[in-house]
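Record 1 of the preview.
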Amino acid sequence: MSEKVVSENVAGEKTAGEKTVAGPHVRLADRGLVLPDLGAPAYAYEAWTRHEDLLYLSGQISRVADGSILAGRVGDDATVADASAAAEVAALNLLSRIDQAVGLDQVAAVLKLNVWVAGGEGFTDQPTVAESASRLLIDVLGDAGRHARTALPSPVLPKNALVELDAVVAVRS
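->
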């Protein structure tokens, strides 16, 4: 159901008639989450590129705010629960990059999310791990966070991260 947004208050909440819809930053705060302050990439690439109304986001690993990395391989030295928590951390980093690029309130739709999960031989439950990243995007962005998704296995990821994800996002002009 589409709503016509009449105004936005200082808390980032959008109002439509008498119904108030919390904005992405309010939803983050409600979950007790803070976007990490991510620096520039260490190598020769961009954290994001934009072409017209499409924002392409480079891979975000499961690096927490203090710089440490949730690392390992599911089935070897990490559990599905560990990897699911790592996927949420990577998704929070992705949201931070979107906020840096255009602002979370400018997201029209997350079109595609790719999630790579480092796993030991025989690990096949990548969709369960990816679900926590998907849920965070939907919880924070509302319907704009609904997306197509691919969950992929990997024997190893950069910096030995448990999870890496990237996305393509449609943004408002």
